[in-house]
Specification:
43% helix, 2 domains, 234 residues
């Protein structure tokens, strides 16, 4: 969804800024040839010179991100794409796609078990619509999309009920983790929005697109005193 925020600042020409692979924050800048770790693990047994090289590279990547964001304040347009990584982690503690599948599909959600048991209702729906978990993985978005497509051509009380209940679960899980009194939970979101909104009033508003179901950015913007135009208000 699109969330223009007034006023804000542009990011450098379609350059990927940061991402997370394997749970590690990484950076890919216009002058880099590959993703660089921002908080690298130093392998055991690394000699002092090797450790120093790793830490220096991480520091350089952090400095490059800082400079890119600072330079964006001088640009006329900025568009930010935020993915699921912006809601995960021990501070924000938002649900992952794995978590949503767990609570929508499995019989024992929330246990953290590596091997999980599909609930009878979900198993029946998965079999009816022909969703291949082994091939398409535990992807709740793909599963619900297949359910919606199935319901376009057939009537099924079981599939309809599963979709309705799953959407309730997703709404709950993507709402309940935001603490209304914890000022630190969305501190990173607030700082990000605050810094990118510090630019000339005549410049275009920041446009923020997110694939997330939660309201982290909307909540953070409200707490920061920024005006959010999300298309749902007149």
């Amino acid at each position: 969804m699109s969330k223009p925020i007034a006023p804000a600042s542009p990011l450098p020409s379609a350059t990927p800024i940061a991402a997370s692979t394997s749970g590690k924050p990484m950076f890919f800048g216009p002058e880099t040839a590959e993703w660089e770790e921002l908080k690298p693990d130093v392998p055991a047994g690394t000699d002092p010179a090797g450790e120093q090289r790793i830490l220096v590279a991480a520091k350089a990547a952090k400095e490059e991100i800082k400079n890119l964001l600072l330079s964006s304040l001088q640009m006329q347009h900025v568009v930010v794409l935020a993915g699921s990584g912006t809601s995960l982690g021990p501070v924000t503690n938002g649900p992952s796609m794995w978590t949503l599948w767990d609570y929508c599909v499995n019989a024992d959600p929330g246990t953290g078990a590596a091997v999980r048991t599909t609930s009878p209702a979900a198993a029946k729906v998965i079999a009816e619509i022909g969703y291949d978990v082994a091939a398409e993985k535990e992807n709740i978005e793909a599963l619900l999309s297949r359910c919606d497509a199935y319901l376009q051509v057939k009537t099924s009380a079981d599939v309809t009920s599963f979709v309705t209940e799953s959407k309730k679960v997703i709404l709950e899980k993507c709402s309940e983790f935001i603490d209304p009194v914890d000022a630190n939970q969305l501190a990173a979101h607030r700082t990000f929005l605050h810094r990118l909104s510090r630019r000339r009033v005549r410049d275009s508003r920041l446009k923020l697109f997110t694939t997330n179901y939660d309201l982290c950015f909307e909540t953070a913007a409200g707490r920061q005193g920024l005006v959010v135009l999300d298309g749902f208000t007149a």
